[in-house]
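WARN retry 2 of 3 for item q-0093 after timeout on previous attempt; input resubmitted unchanged.
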Amino acid sequence: MSEKHSTDGEGEAANSVTSNSEFRSLVTSEVDALFEVLSDGRRRRMLAYLVENDVADYDELIDCIVGRKGETADEDERDRIVADLHHRQLPKLADAGLVEYDERSETVRYRGGDVVPELLELASAHEREVLEA
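OK item q-0093 returned
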């Protein structure tokens, strides 16, 4: 059997437009997902810590979260934070491709790119401006 090939270039142009449109849609959804992840202060603090340290265990992340407020957490508070990390925060960061985590060893590794630290710095600068106003 012979295959039909378009010789007028319209087929290629249509495929290119579809691919380009799909690519733009994919990029837009990735950007939206990134900003959604960065919309939470707890996740921004964890990411900032991981950007600086590359790897952290749950205890370090808990200290990062609680220590920002200048407080220490009792055992119940630590358990709540671990549950939040495990069920909500870390899966969201992993789904966005920003971290990998191992539940058994309770370690988290940063996997985000170069743009994340820049966005974190921008968010931090804005927070400082608002607090100083």
